[in-house]
Design a protein that fits this description.
alpha+beta, globular, about 130 residues, about 25% helix, single chain, 8-stranded mixed β-sheet
C-alpha cells in the first residue's frame, strides 16, 4: 500500500455536507460523481495531498443507506492507493483477510476498487484503490 488515498465519510445530505466541508476545509469540492452500482453519490475535496470523499445514498438499499441507519453519519472507510489491486487482493487473502471483492470493480474518481471486510481489520472498512490506466 502506497499511501492513504482518501477518507470516506457517510453523510445524509450531500448538498448540506458540501457546504459544511467547504467551510471546514476552506476549499470547494472538485467533483461530484454517482456510482450507480453502489447506490451512492460522491463528492470529493482536496486539501494539500489529502482527499476526503463524502458519500450519500441514492436509494434505501445501498450500502451507505444501511451504514447510516446503523451507525449514523461519520467516517465510513479508509482508502489506500495500490499499484496492482489484483496482487494486493491476493496478498491480503493469503494473510487471512476477508476481501469483499474478489474482482476489482469500477469506483468513483477513475479508480478500480475492492474492499476488505471490517471484521478482519479491527472494525475498519478498508478500500483498495488503483488508478484506471487507459
Amino acid at each position: 500500500m502506497n499511501k492513504i488515498e482518501h477518507l470516506g465519510i457517510a453523510v445524509k445530505d450531500l448538498e448540506a455536507s458540501n457546504l459544511l466541508f467547504e467551510k471546514l476545509l476552506g476549499a470547494p469540492h472538485y467533483k461530484i460523481e454517482e456510482v450507480f452500482s453502489e447506490g451512492v453519490k460522491t463528492s470529493f475535496f482536496k486539501v494539500g495531498p489529502n482527499k476526503i470523499e463524502l458519500l450519500e445514498a441514492t436509494h434505501e438499499n445501498s450500502p451507505i443507506a444501511k451504514y447510516l441507519d446503523k451507525k449514523g453519519e461519520g467516517i465510513h472507510h479508509i482508502a489506500f492507493e495500490v499499484d496492482d489491486i489484483v496482487l494486493e487482493i491476493e496478498r491480503l487473502k493469503a494473510e487471512g483477510f476477508t476481501v469483499l471483492n474478489e474482482i476489482p470493480k469500477k469506483g468513483a474518481d477513475n479508480k478500480l476498487v475492492a474492499f476488505v471486510h471490517p471484521k478482519t481489520s479491527n472494525g475498519v472498512l478498508v478500500e483498495l484503490c488503483q488508478e484506471i490506466r487507459e
